[in-house]
């Protein structure tokens, strides 16, 4: 019978969840508000039935009305599900750009809210100060779902929505960790922590939670990789990750279980797309979205069922205390939004948040499932004094109801009053452009398909005329808009072009031409282009394009590890991934020209299309320059990637042919399955990117340099002792004009640019530079700049001249290098080249300085073109 009651209760709860969504959409209310109303109504009905009829009810009905709802259900089943899914769904790579405001707004917001609420309650509440701070930690958690969903419907800045969402995730983790700390102060029979325990204990449980979450996620990924042939097993294994992590952290190591689950989700989100098959990763995200939807709804409804019981013995003084909590929490939020956030914006650490959006965030700071779950945990803890349990339950529940029923029900009205629902002229024109382009596509598609059907000509002509009138009206609205100036059409075209670029990347990913990690990075770059164009127009678009090709924080940190600590394992995969992104980006940019001519020209005219072509050519030039620099640095690697692309393309086309044969009935399902399995095995081999080796031993570097190929074993050991390795980032000036010549450089890997007499030349792996200044004993006449990350071998003047006098191969390499640059006259050639093997070694340091200035051009000669 207990099983029947439990199943009946679950059925009722899921019916409530199913009805809440259409009701919320119909009433234009946040989903959480409707869930709370339905849950509180059911709770009030159960209390009313139990009070009115009591023993007259059947045993089954009494048991159903008194369904036990424990905080342990929330904390061990629903809470890990919620935070794990949020961590899986975050766009981590884009949030890295805003980690400072997210971290500050999350951690600092919890501390400020806890302090404001706790201090404000002390003069009015009979609870001790530590219990007031405990309540402050409980009500400091926020539910961003309402604000984020509204931001997305309003086309608010994506960066702002990301900050709010990321803040809420870390906010919950920080608040729950702080809650556990303060709870230990108020529990009877538990040794009270000292200040030293506070300063050491709280960071310890957080750091331990971080370590446990990372280890569990990495172990889970290793196990899931072993299940590549069983996708359903991988999905099932992922379900166990948050629960095992929470129990291990909370019960075994007494660390923060929520922090551990958050870190496990973030780690899986970061590493998973590159380790799991794209289809498996997509299914995993969808499964967890559904689980989190159910968990969030169930925790809200079940907690709302308890609202009548928690407020049953409330007194009028309690409502005054609820008002104090409301004012203090609002003041704490205002300090963050009008004090801390502008300060971060001033130092360029956060986007500038306009006043309407700040008011929306303030009024949309709803409290929800986590707050109710923590309050319930306190009311069920028998070690907490009864008066504290009562006050915490009433105040936390009352404050949550205020945010839901007062702020939640009026949030959309506030947004309308702020004018955020009105489309800007740019967005209005963009929507008209989309409609016009869509209708043009529909007309072309309909015309194509009508040809294949024997339809009545009069009907076709009539419908075509009707549709043409609608299309003309849409095109006219898009082309002739008094509110949009000609220069404003350029951002519209750039946004449309970026949207098509996004579609091309998604198509390449779905066709398995792109790895998940590279596709995600390219999509992130496109989102940055769109967002920058909305804010800064064409200049913002160009700046975002240059930033996409530049070095981010992760890459700079990897370069620092490579240069300073000789740790190349982070930089090698990043460089290889950059190589692949540039190759695929080149193909995507080529296709955008056709989109400009076929779509954008129809809407915005010839002039705008020409400008977009120019902007696109600049991006293509920057992309080619970055790609060429990598080609110089790693010759042959781009060829391997191109071969890999062709193999992946052939496998995809082969798979398509097999599907067609099955559809036409030419092969059976068994043969088709066998062929698909063979393709899967082949694709696993092709998907593996060829390794990129950044670090080579010094002796290996010396052997690979053509200029030093003739060294015998003794000379090689001597040079190896005296030569030094130098790592330089792109853009660093290696030799400046006018500097004294003291060293010669050999390029072990990378590429440099030499500027001499107004001309530029690029040198790659195996080349040398800096020798002319030493040979001529003059200050540097050229400037050399690194184009890529370079590994150079540096030899000082004395050793170089000594080695040059003893080694024919090096003398020949110096002569050839100098000839290629057209800088050596016949006199210098006689100095560098040895006449024969029997001739005495020349003392190059005693030679007269040579004149290496460019010879005067004869009259009428063509001037060299400066690159």
UniProtKB/TrEMBL annotation:
GO BP, sorted A to Z: regulation of intracellular pH; sodium ion import across plasma membrane
Alphabetized UniProt keyword annotations: Cell membrane, Ion transport, Membrane, Sodium, Sodium transport, Transmembrane, Transmembrane helix, Transport
Taxonomic path: Bacteria, Pseudomonadati, Pseudomonadota, Alphaproteobacteria, Rhodobacterales
InterPro entries: Cation/H_exchanger_CPA1, Cation/H_exchanger_TM, cNMP-bd_CS, cNMP-bd_dom, cNMP-bd_dom_sf, RmlC-like_jellyroll
Topology in membrane: Multi-pass membrane protein
Name of the molecule in the record: Sodium:proton antiporter
Cyclic nucleotide-binding domain sequence ranges: 707-821
GO MF, one annotated term: sodium:proton antiporter activity
Organism: Gemmobacter aquaticus
This protein's GO CC annotations: plasma membrane
Subcellular location: Cell membrane
Coiled-coil stretches: none
CDD domains to which the protein is assigned, alphabetical: CAP_ED
Region: Disordered, residue numbers: 835-867
Transmembrane segments: 30-49, 99-122, 129-153, 173-191, 198-217, 253-271, 291-312, 319-341, 361-379, 391-408
């Amino acid at each position: 019978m207990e099983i029947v009651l439990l199943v009946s209760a679950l059925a009722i709860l899921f019916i409530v969840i199913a009805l809440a969504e259409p009701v919320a959409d119909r009433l234009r209310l946040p989903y959480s508000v409707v869930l709370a109303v339905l849950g509180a109504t059911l709770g009030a009905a159960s209390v009313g039935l139990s009070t009115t009829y009591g023993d007259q009810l059947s045993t089954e009905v009494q048991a159903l009305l008194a369904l036990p709802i424990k905080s342990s259900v929330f904390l061990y089943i629903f809470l890990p599900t919620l935070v794990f899914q949020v961590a899986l769904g975050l766009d981590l790579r884009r949030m890295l750009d805003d980690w400072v405001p997210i971290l500050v707004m999350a951690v600092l917001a919890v501390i400020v809210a806890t302090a404001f609420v706790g201090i404000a309650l002390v003069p009015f509440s009979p609870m001790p100060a530590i219990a007031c701070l405990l309540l402050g930690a409980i009500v400091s958690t926020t539910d961003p779902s309402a604000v984020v969903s509204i931001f997305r419907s309003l086309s608010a800045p994506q960066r702002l929505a990301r900050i709010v969402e990321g803040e809420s995730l870390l906010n919950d983790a920080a608040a729950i960790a702080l809650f556990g700390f303060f709870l230990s102060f108020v529990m009877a029979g538990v040794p009270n922590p000292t200040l030293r325990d506070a300063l050491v204990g709280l960071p310890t449980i957080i750091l331990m939670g971080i370590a446990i979450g990372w280890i569990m996620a990495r172990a889970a990924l290793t196990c899931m990789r072993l299940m590549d042939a069983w996708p359903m097993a991988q999905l099932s294994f992922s379900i166990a990750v948050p629960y095992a992590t929470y129990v291990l952290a909370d019960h075994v190591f007494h660390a923060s279980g929520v922090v551990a689950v958050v870190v496990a989700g973030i780690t899986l989100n970061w590493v998973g797309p590159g380790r799991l098959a794209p289809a498996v990763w997509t299914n995993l995200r969808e499964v967890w979205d559904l689980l989190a939807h159910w968990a969030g709804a169930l925790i809200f409804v079940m907690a709302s069922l308890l609202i009548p019981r928690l407020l049953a013995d409330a007194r009028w003084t309690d409502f005054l205390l609820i008002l104090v909590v409301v004012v203090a929490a609002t003041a704490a939020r205002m300090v963050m939004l009008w004090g801390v956030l502008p300060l971060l914006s001033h130092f360029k650490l956060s986007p500038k948040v306009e006043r309407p959006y700040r008011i929306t965030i303030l009024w949309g700071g709803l409290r929800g499932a986590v707050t109710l779950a923590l309050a319930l945990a306190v009311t069920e803890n028998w070690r907490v004094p009864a008066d504290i349990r009562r006050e915490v339950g009433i105040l936390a529940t009352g404050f949550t109801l205020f945010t839901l029923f007062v702020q939640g029900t009026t949030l959309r009205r506030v947004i309308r009053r702020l004018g955020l629902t009105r489309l800007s002229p740019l967005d209005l024109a963009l929507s008209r452009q989309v409609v016009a382009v869509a209708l043009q596509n529909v007309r072309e598609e309909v015309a194509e398909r009508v040809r294949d059907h024997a339809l009545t000509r009069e009907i076709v002509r009539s419908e075509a005329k009707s549709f043409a009138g609608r299309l003309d009206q849409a095109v006219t609205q898009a082309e002739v808009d008094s509110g949009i100036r000609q220069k404003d059409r350029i951002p519209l075209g750039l946004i449309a072009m970026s949207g098509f670029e996004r579609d091309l990347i998604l198509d390449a990913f779905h066709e398995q031409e792109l790895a998940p990690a590279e596709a995600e990075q390219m999509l992130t770059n496109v989102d940055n282009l769109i967002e920058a164009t909305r804010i800064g127009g064409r200049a913002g678009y160009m700046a975002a394009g240059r930033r996409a090709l530049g070095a981010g924080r992760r890459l700079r940190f990897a370069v620092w590890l490579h240069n300073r600590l000789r740790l190349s394992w982070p930089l090698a995969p990043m460089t290889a991934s950059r190589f692949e992104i540039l190759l695929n980006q080149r193909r995507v940019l080529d296709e955008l020209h056709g989109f400009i001519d076929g779509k954008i020209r129809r809407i915005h005219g010839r002039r705008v299309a020409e400008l977009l072509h120019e902007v696109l050519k600049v991006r293509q030039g920057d992309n080619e320059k970055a790609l060429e620099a990598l080609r110089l640095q790693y010759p042959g690697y781009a060829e391997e990637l191109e071969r890999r692309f062709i193999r992946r393309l052939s496998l995809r086309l082969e798979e398509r042919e097999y599907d067609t044969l099955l559809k036409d009935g030419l092969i059976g399902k068994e043969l088709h399955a066998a062929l698909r399995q063979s393709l899967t095995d082949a694709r696993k081999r092709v998907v593996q990117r060829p390794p990129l080796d950044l670090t080579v031993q010094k002796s290996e570097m010396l052997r690979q340099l053509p200029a030093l190929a003739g060294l015998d074993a003794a000379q090689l050991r001597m040079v190896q002792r005296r030569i030094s390795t130098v790592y330089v980032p792109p853009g660093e000036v290696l030799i400046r004009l006018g500097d004294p010549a003291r060293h010669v450089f050999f390029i072990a890997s990378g590429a440099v640019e030499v500027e001499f007499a107004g001309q530029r030349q690029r040198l790659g792996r195996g080349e040398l530079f800096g020798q002319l200044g030493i040979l001529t004993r003059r200050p540097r006449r050229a400037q050399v700049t690194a184009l890529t990350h370079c590994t150079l071998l540096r030899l000082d003047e004395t050793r170089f001249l000594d080695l040059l006098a003893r080694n024919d191969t090096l003398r020949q390499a110096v002569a050839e290098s100098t000839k290629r640059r057209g800088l050596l006259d016949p006199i210098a050639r006689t100095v560098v080249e040895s006449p024969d093997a029997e001739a005495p070694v020349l003392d190059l340091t005693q030679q007269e300085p040579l004149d290496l200035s460019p010879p005067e051009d004869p009259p009428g000669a063509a001037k060299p073109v400066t690159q």
